[in-house]
Design brief:
Order of helices and strands: HHHHHHEE
Radius of gyration: 46 Å
Number of domains: 2
Strand order of the largest sheet: 1-2
Distance between the termini: 98 Å
Oligomer: single chain
Strand content: 5-15%
Mean pLDDT: 82
Length: 156
C-alpha cells in the first residue's frame, strides 16, 4: 500500500469513517511506512489537543445571535447607493471615457479621409503645374464653328 492511500485511510480513521475491517490493514501499513506513521502521530496529537480545548458557549448564545439578526432594520436603497457611490462614479467615468475615445477615433478617421482627398487634389495640381512649367502641354487648337462662337480644345 502506498503512502497516499495510507494517509487517506488515516484521515478516514480519525474522522471515524474507516470501516473496522480496514483498521488492521491501516496499522500494518503504518508499521511499514515511516511517512504515514509520522502523519498519523501529528494528526492524532492534534485531535487530542483540540478535544481537550473544547470551550463551552453560553446556552443563550444562539438566541442572542438570532435576535440580533432579526433586530436589524432593512437597508434603504438610498443607503446602498450612498455606500457604493465610488463604484458608480467609477463606472460612470469609465463609460464616459469609452464614449470620448470612440468619438475621437471616429473624428480621426474622418480627418484622415479628408486628408487623403486633399492629398490627391494637391498631387493632381502639382502634376498640372509641372506640365505648365516645363512647357509639355500639347498645343491648343481653336475651331470656330459659328460666326460668334469660339471653341478652345486642349489635348492633355
Amino acid at each position: 500500500m502506498n503512502t497516499e492511500q495510507l494517509i487517506k485511510m488515516v484521515n478516514e480513521f480519525l474522522d471515524g469513517e474507516l470501516p473496522k475491517e480496514k483498521e488492521n490493514s491501516l496499522f500494518a501499513g503504518l508499521g511499514n511506512d515511516e511517512t504515514a506513521r509520522e502523519y498519523f502521530k501529528k494528526l492524532n496529537s492534534l485531535k487530542f489537543v483540540t478535544n481537550e480545548m473544547t470551550e463551552t458557549f453560553p446556552q443563550k448564545l444562539d438566541m442572542k445571535i438570532l435576535t440580533g439578526l432579526k433586530d436589524k432594520a432593512p437597508v434603504s436603497p438610498f443607503h446602498l447607493i450612498k455606500s457604493r457611490s465610488i463604484t458608480y462614479v467609477s463606472l460612470l467615468l469609465l463609460f464616459m471615457s469609452l464614449l470620448t475615445g470612440y468619438y475621437l477615433f471616429e473624428q480621426t478617421n474622418i480627418k484622415k479621409e479628408e486628408l487623403l482627398i486633399a492629398k490627391a487634389k494637391i498631387e493632381q495640381q502639382e502634376k498640372l503645374i509641372n506640365l505648365v512649367m516645363t512647357n509639355q502641354l500639347s498645343p491648343v487648337t481653336v475651331y470656330p464653328a459659328y460666326e460668334n462662337e469660339i471653341i478652345i480644345k486642349a489635348d492633355l
